[in-house]
Amino acid sequence: MAPGSGPDAIHDGRTEGMSQKQVATEMGISIKTVGAHMQNVLGTLDVHSRMEAVARAARASATSEA
């Protein structure tokens, strides 16, 4: 795995819009590892799904612009 990859790459949005299979190929890791990284990121954000994470980010962005 390349430096700066793993959960940080997923969290930083470097894999934004990519499927788990695309992320796995890009990072040279298994799809299961991508899924584990995603679960870790979601847990850190205290959300249960990608959609919940997106909704939270949108609310935070709207609040900071007001």
From TrEMBL:
GO molecular function: DNA binding
Region described as Disordered: 1-22
Gene Ontology biological process: regulation of DNA-templated transcription
InterPro entries from the UniProt entry: Sig_transdc_resp-reg_C-effctor (IPR016032), Tscrpt_reg_LuxR_C (IPR000792), WH-like_DNA-bd_sf (IPR036388)
Keyword hit for Transmembrane: no
Coiled coil ranges: none
Keyword vocabulary terms for this entry: DNA-binding, Transcription, Transcription regulation
Residue ranges constituting the HTH luxR-type domain according to the UniProt record: 1-61
Pfam families tied to this protein: GerE (PF00196)
Name listed for the protein in its UniProt record: Transcriptional regulator NarP
Native source species: Microbacterium trichothecenolyticum
